[in-house]
Amino acid sequence: MSKLRVQCFGVSLDGYGAGTDQDLQNPLGVRGPEIMEWFLATNVWKKMHGLGAGETGVDNRFAERSFENIGAWILGRNMFGPVRGPWPDDSWKGWWGDEPPYHVPVFVLTHYARAPIKMKGGTEFFFVTDGIESALDQAKNAAGERDVRLGGGVATIREYLRAGLIDELHLAMRPVLIGAGENLMSGIDLRALGYSCTESIAGERAHHVILRKATMG
Ligand SMILES: NC(=O)c1ccc[n+]([C@@H]2O[C@H](COP(=O)([O-])OP(=O)(O)OC[C@H]3O[C@@H](n4cnc5c(N)ncnc54)[C@H](OP(=O)(O)O)[C@@H]3O)[C@@H](O)[C@H]2O)c1
Fold this sequence. Notes:
Blueprint (H helix, E strand, L loop, with lengths): L3 E9 L3 E3 L13 H9 L2 H6 L9 H10 L2 E7 H4 L24 E5 L7 E2 L5 E5 L3 H12 L3 E6 L1 H9 L5 E7 L7 E2 L11 E8 L4 E7 L4
Bound molecules: NADP nicotinamide-adenine-dinucleotide phosphate (NAP).
NADP nicotinamide-adenine-dinucleotide phosphate (NAP) binds next to strand 1, strand 2, helix 1, helix 4 and strand 7.
């Protein structure tokens, strides 16, 4: 059965998934890159950006695994870009250039309606204004037998966690302190929501943990 998966979500030791003050120069917020440093060294990332060979150990294997069997993505509007409020025009098409690394339909949660955008390589961005369940239904419909990947950012993952809708959450814990930004876990009782840690594996630059929701019955 199709699952909702969070994969390769970078988290600092103090629980942050993004730094403060996201803008065009700081897509991950100030100090955000320290959280994702492990991913930027992988062969997966380097290949994606034409940067030659990268590292091929445990971290890279998790990066590879994160793209396997994914038929659709869900993103929050801030992960899609730095534009806030009503869309001033149709010029912003994501951080990723003409050919984003998704290659499947991507459902972007926002309060501001916008027409879908077809990109090169099979990515199409759809803007969903009627909530997380609707985005999940549409994404599952598009994904068919394959899984849906919840890309982030932090606020969007927190919403899906609170609703108990995430089947599997892979966090890449980085041994850095960010101090301020978007905190992933604060105020969320994952135990009460039925999650437990089922895998814990040390990588080269991050420690990987998998949280799964127990299935009832
Ligand atoms: N650590 C990692 O691995 C990782 C991965 C991905 C992203 N990130 C980072 O995370 C940061 C973004 O996270 P974030 O917490 O700021 O924001 P986010 O989750 O990306 O987006 C939040 C926004 O999405 C829209 N939205 C969310 N739920 C909605 C709903 N139910 N209905 C309608 N609209 C909804 C709202 O936008 P509007 O109301 O404005 O439309 C809301 O302000 C970025 O810096 C990004 O680079 C980190």
